[in-house]
Amino acid sequence: MLPKRVVFAANASTTTGAGHLRRLIEIAKALPDSIEKHLIGSIDVPWLKTSSARAFLPPLPIQEYGADDLVVLDSYDREFCLQIQSRFTSSQIVQVADRHTFLLPRVQIIFMDLPFIYKSKNINNRVIVHGVEYLPIRKLKVINSKFKPRALRVLITSGGVVSERIYQQLARELSNDDYSEINFEFIGLPKIVSNFPDNLRFHPLGDSFDSIAAESDTAISAAGTTMWDLLANQITLGIAAIVENQKSNFDYAVGSNLALPIFDPVTHGLNLGNLRALLFNQDTRKLLYGNSFGKYDFLGATRTSEAILNSFSKNYVSAKI
Hints:
Blueprint: E1 5-9, H1 18-30, E2 36-40, H2 46-55, E3 70-73, H3 78-87, E4 92-97, E5 108-111, H4 121-124, E6 127-130, E7 153-158, H5 164-174, E8 183-187, E9 200-203, H6 208-215, E10 218-222, H7 224-232, E11 236-239, H8 247-255, E12 259-261, H9 272-280, H10 282-292, H11 300-320
Parallel strand pairs: 1-2, 1-3, 3-4, 4-5, 5-6, 7-8, 7-10, 8-9, 10-11, 11-12
Helix pairs in contact: 1-2, 1-11
């Protein structure tokens, strides 16, 4: 039994929620074409509005949604989550969550975090799928062995609210002559220091991310969902462990030798040794690249959508008995 429609619920702004919405877009694209896909929520990011318009139908009046519909909710906003639950009292709700998400009672959970066991047995029993292998990882390019013995083009990106002081340290260091032969592409970060050299370029967060990432051999990321995209695409990775709700993912990546910590997560000071190793040390780069190679595929969205539909089907049958 497939749902007639799936209603996706998320908010996105320039400071929060972009990764959540992008995650839902990938899940929606993996669902069968026979299912209507609608989006409820506010989007304040122009490029995400465009992507959403391609993935979803316009929302319907609330009275047109029914008990045979499925709602997939992905948000840190407690009030928004409660509002969705109150509007869809007769529909099944699946909540996409990590350990920092406000969890609604009784709904089922797609856990988009590292393996993590809640203290509450009730919550653990509601988790449909669990672990990073279910993250909707995107294929940014055709992989033809992107390994380079030293960095040539580096993507630097962030998610959510990140202290300008942190990236000011990085930009000033990269302005030194030692880095003049490397091109650095900053995405979604403010240009906070004047007189940068020409090899430091700044871009607004938007559609340019995919094309720049596809052409980069190295990345420094402070964004969670993006981190897994970069790893799956075998881009040698440095991690800026500075966003509270991403630290568990960063700890995993660093502990598994998938990435180097570029900033101290406590002091937020730049780790110059790790930065230079990431960019210039062939052995370090080969280790990081080799550990990610073949470890993550691009089927996370498919696995996630299948888990959601299987859960809906089982609940639908149970409700009819």
